[in-house]
Design brief:
Chain B: Belongs to the folliculin family. The complex is a heterodimer. In chain A, the strands form two sheets. In chain A, strands 1, 2, 3, 4, 5, 6, 7 and 8 form an eight-stranded mixed sheet that branches. A seven-stranded antiparallel sheet of chain A has the order 10-9-15-14-13-12-11, with helices on both faces. Chain A is globular and about 65 Å long. In chain A, 37% of the residues lie in helices and 21% in strands. Chain A has two domains: 173 residues, Rossmann fold; 128 residues, Beta-Lactamase (2-Layer Sandwich), CATH 3.30.450.190. Chain B folds into three domains: 182 residues, no CATH class; 124 residues, Rossmann fold; 88 residues. Chain B starts with a strand and ends in a 6-residue tail after the last helix. About 19% of the residues of chain B have low confidence. The chains are: A alpha+beta, B alpha+beta. Bound molecules: guanosine-5'-diphosphate and magnesium ion.
């Protein structure tokens, strides 16, 4: 994913220039609205996930005073809006809440689990109530955040409590049908990436197709678990239907880091760099790249050719293949299954082609849609004239 | 000028909040109650509606905030947005809490400046609040610090100068503030942009550098403390994570500006600055066409001379500016340049200097039309109120009646008139010498200049007025342009005179008679500032309406 610089926009209609295409509020990409009380960790999440900011550095973030809007360009384009916790954006005298909440997307509500969360819950209820009023299609995601300091038991209790109170509250006002999802997150581990993955997956219409493709690939190649990752943010946009266990997810996600690091060091000058030496990591994992390492961090076309293999000392093999500019497939399989890697390579090529077809279809329909939109507006003009 | 200046802050607890406002009140429009809080601001607030005067009288305490955030605490409770006064020497008369300051304008007793946390007028409050929210949480300025201008007709127009200051206790170690200048007139606001921005910048950098110093000091102290006590820490256990440590503090609001900057009279100074800005800005903007006349009365379009130019005879108009109308003998002196050509440098200089420093001119001649044309040329040189004319008299009239006197050729000037305060010009044309060309026509004039100020005064030292005037006359400009140029020249000098007057009356309240006792060194300072010469002082004083003795 490539990021445009963190921009701040006025939500007031600008007095000069009604340049529609430039206007962020006219931009119809899906929106992720990150809301919550102040200091709940909204900006930290946004920085850690989309800017690779180390978690410790978030201690020094200044408080957010304006909506920070960020365009994310990837396999799907979307926007992330980081809100200041102090301001009530439903106040119709000052803000046009229909514009803010009217777009297709998700509202992420962040609750600081280390703090007393009663006030946060009140705010959550208000927010759900009023945002739902304005946009029935908004999905609501509740991040019970900063759980790193909580014991496992306490985590579960907290989640249960929050979930219970919220559903009760919403049932009282007749909103029991509004779907809310709850996640336990922290920026100090992978949980925030996992939660974000699930949030984003809901915004991808092709998700069932992708999951299907992954299932087919896994069953035909003897793969235990496969993730389709967005390389830059380490969000996985799809996985096969076998259950996700945290450890597998973490190791797969770490592998992307390894590949990015290596390609950043060695992949800059030449797009094909042979690493002949064997590299040993601390945990005795043997890294073996079979020749082609693409430059990941910056999205070059060679990223689709990247491939890497790591043999773990527990008899498993981690295998990474570039799929396109933004995506990479990371799978975990037994090393005896890896014997037939000619087959795996073949299957993988098929998979890659299928993915390309899926997104090509989407691109074409988007184009058609745009054309139709244009034709529509033209004919409207004719009627008007 | 209706405007309000305020300081606003993005508070960690409350979000955007107004900290302090200063507003000007005019005595005729605001009632002056002792109790600050109940002062109605009707008529003098930018957005106040004249018609609903009494409902707008609401006190601070019982007003409901129009912009309520969910579960937001009352704004007054937060220390970081609190506004406070230095400890007073005398006890306040009211036992109630003091809500603001009042400053009287020494130069204009009708005006008072009031500083308080919020404006009292409900509608104005809403406008300020809106401007505050918008400038801190919506508007974006290049580089984040600096000025932006926004607004609409409903809520007024706003110039907001955003800046951040260092605070070792704040998140990210900084806090955001903004100076807001709100008024209804967009054009005024845009015009005063350079002035306001420069003043706000000075104020902001002052606060920033103070905060920086304290920030450095606190940081150094913190490091020292950490080094010293790290190993020998006793007492309660240290917080387990830095975030927990920060959070513990986060639920308490940050320090107020008074505590942060360690300056007890911060708000007093701020109020003084705001009042000054309001005053200076108002003065700056209220400039009107001088002397209630249009800037260019002989404007090119309507000037009778332009029409004359269309007359075929008028084409014989020469470079000397002598214009002949309907036959050779209808002659008049068309402009100052022509007069200069006739009189020559010395006589011209003497005549003009006598006139502009306030002496009486007596113009006589064999043809009243010539006298008239001389008078009408001369009067263009001074402001209207410095010029009273009697064009065609048979008896001498004193200087108290007129300072330009058109007198019949034979009348004598009485002996008891102080000859150094009058200057007499006799000008005649010999109609027998029929002119062949322009030069010759000019030579048909004869003149005689008598009395007036000492020649020594004229030549002793440079005089900027006359030198500038001569410089203009020497420019080879077309007539219309020359007239315009002289007009501008006059406006420049009358503005100098006004500034001089303002300075003098501003310094001592006794007003106009004060100039005499005003000490000379001070006058010299003003002179330097006005870019004039010591010899111009009589002129300036005369123009400013000050008596010269
Ligand atoms: N322990 C812990 N602290 C966090 C986590 N996320 C954010 N923080 C801290 O929470 C504080 C406030 O974060 P910030 O993102 O600025 O809050 P915002 O006002 O919601 O944008 C910072 O000091 C972060 O370091 C987390 O997952 N765990
Ligand atoms: Mg933030």
């Amino acid at each position: 994913m490539s990021h445009s610089e963190g921009d701040e926009y006025s939500l007031h209609t600008s007095p000069i220039g009604n340049d529609v295409s430039e206007d962020p509020v006219q931009d119809h990409r899906p929106r992720l609205l990150i809301m919550g009380l102040r200091r709940s960790g909204k900006s930290s999440i946004q920085k850690v996930v989309f800017h690779k900011m180390p978690a410790n550095e978030t201690l020094f973030l200044e408080s957010t005073s304006k909506i920070i809007k960020e365009n994310i360009t990837s396999f799907i384009d979307f926007q992330v809006w980081d809100f200041p916790g102090q301001i009530d954006y439903f106040d119709t005298a000052t803000y046009d809440s229909d514009v803010i909440f009217g777009e297709y997307g998700a509202l992420i509500f962040v609750i600081d689990a280390q703090d007393d969360y009663i006030e946060a819950l009140n705010r959550l209820h208000q927010t759900v109530l009023r945002a739902h009023e304005r946009n029935k299609n908004l999905t609501f995601e509740v991040f019970i955040h900063k759980v790193d300091a909580l014991s496992d038991e306490y985590k579960i209790d907290t989640q249960r409590d929050i979930q219970q109170r919220t559903t009760d509250e919403l049932a009282d006002v007749g909103l029991e049908n509004v779907p809310l999802s709850f996640y336990l997150t922290s920026i100090y581990d992978h949980s925030i990436f996992e939660a974000f993955s699930k949030v984003i997956q809901k915004l991808i219409p092709q998700l069932p197709t992708l999951e299907n493709l992954l299932n087919i690939l896994c069953s035909n190649s003897g793969i235990e678990k496969a993730f389709l990752f967005d390389v830059n943010s380490k969000i996985y946009i799809a996985t096969d239907s076998s259950p996700v266990d945290m450890q597998t997810y973490e190791i797969c996600s770490d592998m992307i880091d390894v590949i990015i690091d290596i390609s950043e060091i060695y992949g800059r000058t030449t797009s094909f760099h042979h690493i002949s030496d064997e590299i040993y990591e601390d945990n005795q994992t043997q890294v073996e790249t079979n020749g082609k390492t693409g430059n990941y961090g910056t999205t070059t076309d060679t990223a689709n050719d990247a491939a890497s293999l790591i043999k773990l000392n527990n008899g498993m093999v981690l295998c990474l293949r570039g799929v396109n500019r933004f995506l990479a497939l990371v799978c975990l399989l037994r090393s005896d299954n890896f014997e037939k890697h000619g087959l795996i390579d073949y299957n993988f090529q098929c998979f890659k082609q299928a993915i390309a077809d899926v997104f090509e279809l989407k691109r074409r329909s988007a184009e058609r849609f745009r054309h139709e939109g244009m034709r529509l507006s033209v004919s409207e003009e004719n009627v008007g004239g | 000028m209706n405007a309000i200046v305020s300081l606003v802050h993005f508070c960690e607890v409350d979000g955007p909040s107004v900290i302090f406002c200063t507003q000007a009140f005019h005595a005729n429009s605001a009632e002056d109650n002792l109790d600050e809080v109940s002062v109605s601001s009707r008529g003098s607030s930018p957005v106040a509606d004249q018609t609903h005067s009494d409902n707008s009288r609401e006190t601070l305490s019982n007003r409901k905030e129009p912009f309520v955030n969910i579960n937001r605490p009352a704004p007054a409770s937060c220390a970081s947005c609190a506004f406070s006064l230095p400890p007073l020497d005398t006890k306040p008369i009211h036992n109630s809490e003091i809500k603001g300051f009042k400053t009287r304008d020494e130069e204009n007793p009708l005006v008072t400046y009031k500083g308080s946390r919020y404006p009292q007028d409900q509608q104005l409050y809403a406008a300020v609040r809106q401007a505050c929210v918008r400038s801190l949480s919506c508007e974006f300025c290049q580089g984040r610090e600096g000025p932006v201008l926004f607004g609409d007709d409903k809520n007024g127009y706003v110039l907001s100068y955003m800046f951040k200051i260092k605070d070792s206790q704040a998140r990210g170690f900084q806090r955001w503030y903004s100076f807001i200048f709100l008024m209804t007139d967009r054009v005024y606001l845009v015009e005063s942009w350079p002035f306001l921005v420069s003043k706000f910048r000075i104020l902001a950098t002052g606060i920033q550098s103070k905060a920086n110093q304290i920030f450095e000091k606190e940081n150094a102290a913190k490091e020292e403390r950490n080094d010293g006590t790290f190993l020998t820490r006793s007492g309660p256990l240290p917080p387990t994570s830095p975030d927990q440590f920060l959070r513990r503090r986060a639920n308490q609001p940050l320090r107020s500006l008074v505590d942060l900057l360690k300056s007890k009279d911060f708000f007093v100074q701020l109020h003084a600055n705001f009042s000054w800005i309001l005053k200076a800005c108002g003065r700056h903007l209220q400039e009107k066409p001088i002397n209630d006349q249009t800037m260019f009365p002989n404007s090119v379009v309507f000037s009778p001379k332009t029409i004359m130019l269309l007359d075929p005879i008028a084409t014989c108009q020469s470079s000397f500016g002598l214009n002949c109308l309907k036959g050779d003998y209808e002659t008049r002196i068309e402009d100052l340049k022509a007069l200069y050509n006739i009189l020559g440098l010395d006589a011209f200089r003497k005549l003009i200097l006598n006139f502009v420093k306030g002496n009486q001119l007596i113009i006589r001649g064999n043809d009243p039309r010539i006298v008239q044309s001389v008078i009408s040329n001369l009067k263009e040189l001074v402001p209207n109120e410095c010029c009273s004319i009697m064009e065609n008299e048979n008896n001498y009239q004193t200087i108290s009646k007129c300072n330009i006197l058109g007198l019949s050729a034979t009348t004598q000037i009485p002996d008891d008139v102080n000859k150094s305060t009058v200057c007499s010009l006799y000008i005649s044309q010999d109609y027998n010498k029929s002119p062949k060309d322009d030069i010759a026509r000019m030579n048909t004039f004869e003149f005689d200049l008598q009395y007036g100020i000492d020649d020594k005064w004229i030549y002793s030292a440079p005089n900027s007025f006359i030198n500038q005037l001569l410089g203009i006359l020497k420019l080879n400009l077309p007539n219309e342009l020359m007239n315009t140029r002289i007009m501008i020249f006059k406006e420049q000098w009358s503005s100098k005179a006004k500034q001089f007057l303002r300075f003098i009356t501003g310094n001592n309240n006794e007003g106009r008679n004060a100039s005499a006792n005003m000490d000379l060194t001070k006058q010299m300072e003003v002179i330097k500032y006005l870019d004039i010469n010591e010899n111009d002082l009589p002129i300036i004083k005369f123009w400013a309406g000050l008596k010269t003795t």
